[in-house]
Amino acid sequence: xxxxxxxxxxxxxxxxxxxxxxxxxxxxxxxxxxxxxxxxxxxxxxxxxxxxxxxxxxxxxxxxxxxxxxxxxxxxxxxxxxxxxxxxxxxxxxxxxxxxxxxxxxxxxxxxxxxxxxxxxxxxxxxxxxxxxxxxxxxxxxxxxxxxxxxxxxxxxxxxxxxxxxxxxxxxxxxxxxxxxxxxxxxxxxxxxxxxxxxxxxxxxxxxxxxxxxxxxxxxxxxxxxxxxxxxxxxxxxxxxxxxxxxxxxxxxxxxxxxxxxxxxxxxxxxxxxxxxxxxxxxxxxxxxxxxxxxxxxxxxxxxxxxxxxxxxxxxxxxxxxxxxxxxxxxxxxxxxxxxxxxxxxxxxxxxxxxxxxxxxxxxxxxxxxxxxxxxxxxxxxxxxxxxxxxxxxxxxxxxxxxxxxxxxxxxxxxxxxxxxxxxxxxxx
Length: 429
Ligand code: HAM
Known about the structure:
The protein is an alpha+beta fold. It has two domains: 14-168 and 228-317, Bira Bifunctional Protein, Domain 2 (BirA Bifunctional Protein, domain 2, 2-Layer Sandwich), CATH 3.30.930.10; 330-421, 3-Layer(aba) Sandwich (Rossmann fold), CATH 3.40.50.800. The chain is 36% helix and 21% strand. Helix 1 runs antiparallel to helix 5 and helix 5 runs parallel beside helix 9.
């Protein structure tokens, strides 16, 4: 068997790194300016952390999407399928309810779901995740959603759509689920198998059905947003009011449902045009009650996660792809055998201030300059017998071709003041 990466996983190659790095830098800047602190939870947890939180009827569990295994000590462990449960487990474990409230935490890293692989849907994928724990106020929901949009905007993504809805309070949900069961009971047999299972376990999830037959059956029914109780309705209106006032564009989606069971009231997704069926860049919502469910105090919370691969895909579609990878400031070329160790030593010293690379075997000047060019260097520095005798380097600015002899002692400064070199050539090699 030829060894290869497991289906649904991918190598992030050197050429991919700049856009990943930029995305994380933008997310960090936007979030940390809003007082969000970084939390890095472990990649795996006791299976119970996720089983208790994502809900029995959640897609993750229903479709057996979690990577759960027994370790050698017989502990049942799960590779995290999302961050929320891990972050809240950490919140409880470290007594963060005693910290100034709300506690705002962001995280990023891989998550794992054993899903059917397709565009935008992988088995190891990456999320940027935000949780705001300790506030039940609608202003917290609006701030969280606005921060998500701020990140996308600062990345340069326009044409994104916030779909805002509400799944109501637990009573509202129970009432709505009963309504759906009653309404669909006479024709339940006509639903697809998946939808029949959803009708049994979590009827609201039916609203997410993709099958045209299923969609036709539910088309005329009331939506969760039409059936909210007064408190959830007032909460929804307040969130929408803030977003309007802050000019965060959104559409009301009366049928929004999410694949995880823990949501209360606010539920939202953010979509981008043109990235195919998996157009949700991310989503989230309020999860009052979940911290208590994980054994902590009964504090409310709201959060979201976005899929890094999906946001990068949307950026590529919008032609906002990669900042070019930068090459070294200097590429040193040894022109004889003795110079090999010398350029390596010089490079080590200069690296205190600059990115410097070098050849590992002696090179004729023409070939050495070509090596420097391929490395993407700003300058080539050539060292042979004459330079050794003089204590100099032949420094060539590759873009302009300007070249001059620079004393070794001045080299570090010369690299930092490019204009000092880009003067008429004084000497040829
Ligand atoms: P989620 O909707 O399950 O929510 O995932 C959030 C985002 O992660 C999705 O919109 C998508 O961009 C990305 N994603 C999910 N599964 C995959 C996959 N298999 N391949 C690629 N990307 C994927 C959550 O995970 C919640 N924990 C969000 C949250 C935080 N709610 C409250 N706080």
